Amino acid sequence: MSRVRPTGDWDGRSFAHEAFAFSADQELVDRVVPFAVEGLSRGEPVLVVAGERVRTLLTQELGADVRRLATFAAAETWWQGGHRTLHAYDRDLRALQAVAPTWRLAAEPTWLARDDGREWSRFEAVANRCYADLPYYSLCLHDRQRLPASVLDAVARTHPLTWGGSAPVPEPAYEGPEQFIRSVHPVWAQRPARASVAVLTTPREARRTVSAAALGWWPARVGDVVQAAHELVVNALRVAAFAEVSSWTDGDTLVVEVADSGPGLPDETLGYVPPPVGPDGGRGMWLAWSLADDAAVDSHPAGTAIRLFFHR
Amino acid sequence: MGLRPGDHVCWTFVDAADFRAAVLPFLDEGRRLGEHLLLVGASRPELLRALAPLPGRDEMLASGQLEVRSTAEVYASGEQLSPAEQVAAYRSLVDAALARGRTGLRVAADVTPLVRGGDDGRTRLHVYEQLADALMGSVAMTALCLYEASLGAEVLGPVTLLHPDQHCGEEEPLAHLSGRGRALSLHGEVDVTQADGLVRALVDVARGTPGEVVLDLSDLRFLDVAGARALARAAQVLRAADVQLRLVRAPRTAVRCLGLFGLDGGETVPA
């Protein structure tokens, strides 16, 4: 029998992101218990945030060592929508980073089983980029009995590591963040001829224009629509003299598009990257994405167009 | 113009014609309301010429209802402007006007020279504008503060924000930082275009109050990421000066932006 190396060659200095899918109790125990024990033996903070089944098994297997975990929490209460959940998670990570040189986390995003929780895979995808320098090992646990095949497929495509039986190994289905995000965003169809289009040079004009369009669609969401579109217009006007703002409805969905002739987005996944610490740094795309129900990006060296989708 | 006691207008002008177009109807309205009128500007002779078309100019000058004085005479230069003394002087002028049977004091002042007192001078001007605004909230005074448009956005940004009524060419007024209530309060729409001005104005008016400064956000109709960043920056600068900026009564829609900077908007108000 080969020796189990729960974190393989991980040196504790950068981000490792593994997805582990389990069916039987023993499978889970064999993966998570050595992972936790290794962390405790190395003096690392070990955090566990998981559903009831995982917590019950770990309590039985770890015995008194459960009390040595830095966090041992129920995942069921964590979901507040993708952006809020990641923002809260991000604050916890920054707090850890301030006190620990390295740490490890076994986390079960139980909300992936919910229809409104599936967007979490987008954040998992982008984490590979925005957390690349954070010194921790994230072992993401997925219950095959609870999660549909489409979610397990997204899990594989968003985690660079999977479990090889005695050590983590590269996941063959893994995709880069951009590729994954593009594949889940709505298809970029041609703008319909009925869309109303305005060319604007100031954010305040954009607010008036978008507000008028949203009022005719659904007054209750005017605030969200105006705020989200405003931030995109501000970004567009940073790189171009004017922004083209168009909007149309598609069934119950309002689509707002902001286009510019700037040099293209350096990173089109920024809508999923949590705000930095301190007042500097952009937050407009993060805010716009969090207010909208979905988004799509068409960016190239001659310009950028972003669509935000709001469902009634 | 429809201005009444309590109104405090920031008016940027491009040239002499623009200046006259603002000042003449303003003073004529005061004449009709029976107010004491004071026009302040760089050069007294030029001001008198500008007033030539004003109905009753000579009679009002003779009776003392209209006074024309130079900026240097009324205000000390920017380096020496004492905000509290200047506001006290205006308060006395209001009392004197009322004692003479006028209905109030109406001042049109080209305060452009006050901006030229360097960085400290600008700080004193901001403190002064805020104290003057609070004064106008409580006595029978109406003011038109005139600033040359050529001063540019960096200088005019904070100054404009400190006036409840604003006129800057074609631009629609957006935000106002008021000290008329028990707490400072921010009104209207705060977006990226006023963010820098807001940091400057807020820091300047709050810095002199060690301890806690409360900023009421309940009348804010719009706040964007840049506006929230401005509040975060101002709070940071003030903290270094031992002033704790406490935001209260943020509208629900603004809370999201504030949260992006770890700012707490206090107990929220709807909308």
TrEMBL record, chain A:
The keyword Transferase applies. Keywords: Kinase, Serine/threonine-protein kinase, Transferase. GO terms for molecular function: protein serine/threonine kinase activity. Pfam families: HATPase_c_2, MEDS. The keyword Secreted does not apply. Residues 204-308 form the Histidine kinase/HSP90-like ATPase domain. It comes from the Bacteria. Residues 17-160 form the MEDS domain. NCBIfam families: RsbA_anti_sig. This is Anti-sigma regulatory factor (Ser/Thr protein kinase). It comes from Geodermatophilus siccatus.
UniProtKB/TrEMBL annotation, chain B:
Residues 184-271 form the STAS domain. InterPro entries: MEDS_domain, STAS_dom, STAS_dom_sf. It comes from the Bacteria. Gene3D superfamilies: STAS domain. This is Anti-anti-sigma factor.
